[in-house]
Design a protein that fits this description.
This protein has helices at 6-11, 26-34, 46-49, 61-74, 93-107, 121-129, 145-148, 159-173, 185-194, 215-218, 236-253; strands spanning 18-22, 39-42, 79-83, 111-113, 134-139, 177-181, 199-202, 210-213. The chain is an alpha/beta fold. It has 2 domains: 6-233, Alpha-Beta Barrel (TIM Barrel), CATH 3.20.20.60; 236-264, no CATH class. It is globular. The relative contact order is 0.12. The model has no long low-confidence stretch (mean pLDDT 96).
Length: 264
């Protein structure tokens, strides 16, 4: 397996499709890394998937660092990216640089990700200028759900041009990659063709340079929550439920533990 670096990711544009998945703990990260995923994103989606928040807005820097440290310890090959949570970079360029530096230093991740396009151009450039790699994120940006009125497709109609300019601004600012979330397929294809940096799609069709999914969605652990863009490659929720039910029954019936699970 090849060690994935920022230059490696950038160099794959037009050569091969890139893969990215989320992880929030040591065991899951080790499994993903063993399968040679290109990038592991410790997303602020940890708030809704692991911590029980209603959205990503309450997630803190400390929580992001805590989970990313565990992921980095398990990862030998994939590029690990840490999400900058809500209000860790929006106040000022100086605040953004300080928090990006702290998050990189304490988590040992190899890059940061932040949301926003033209409005974050100066911030992204400032972080890149102090040698911290940045992954951009435009389209549906979960930290802006209240402004957007919920989780809705972005870039339709007149909004398409704004989204194009957002993606171009991110590239010009020096980001090495950009996530396109919940964007019409044709628009995502157009943006991908315009940019020199890779695009990573989630709900943006097959023409992006790579794809990302939340690992719990991929594994069928998210219950009834199933956005259109999610493909379930397993149904582990049912398998886990079945295993736990059997365990409870065997303990109550006295069949576990038996002699083979006891010391003599």
């Amino acid at each position: 397996m090849e060690q994935k670096t920022v230059p490696y990711i950038k160099d794959q544009k037009g050569k091969k499709k890139l893969t990215m998945l989320t992880a929030y703990d040591y065991i899951m990260a080790s499994i993903l890394d063993e399968q040679d995923v290109d990038m592991i994103l410790v997303g602020d989606s940890v708030g809704t998937t692991v911590l029980g928040y209603p959205n990503t807005i309450p997630v803190t820097i400390e929580e992001m660092i805590h989970h990313t440290k565990a992921v980095v310890k398990a990862t030998k090959n994939a590029l690990v990216i840490i999400d900058m949570p809500f209000m860790s970079y929006q106040e000022s360029v100086e605040q953004a640089k300080g928090n990006a530096g702290r998050m990189m230093k304490e988590s040992l991740a190899s890059a940061v990700k932040l949301e926003g396009g033209q409005n974050m151009k100066d911030t992204i450039k400032a972080i890149v200028d102090i040698d911290i790699p940045v992954m951009g994120h435009v389209g549906l940006t979960p930290q802006s759900i209240h402004r957007m009125g919920g989780y809705k497709v972005q870039g339709k109609g007149k909004e398409a041009e704004r989204l194009i300019q957002d993606a171009l601004a991110i590239e010009e600012a020096g980001a090495f990659c950009v996530v396109l979330e919940c964007v019409p397929r044709d628009l995502a294809k157009e943006i991908t063709g315009m940019l020199k940096i890779p695009t990573i799609g989630i709900g943006a069709g097959p023409d992006c340079d790579g794809q990302v999914l939340v690992i719990y969605d991929l594994l069928g652990l998210s219950g009834d929550f199933r956005p259109k863009f999610v493909k379930r490659y397993a149904n582990l929720k049912d398998e886990i439920s079945k295993a736990v039910k059997t365990y409870i029954e065997e303990v109550k019936e006295g069949t576990f533990p038996d002699d083979s699970h006891s010391f003599h």
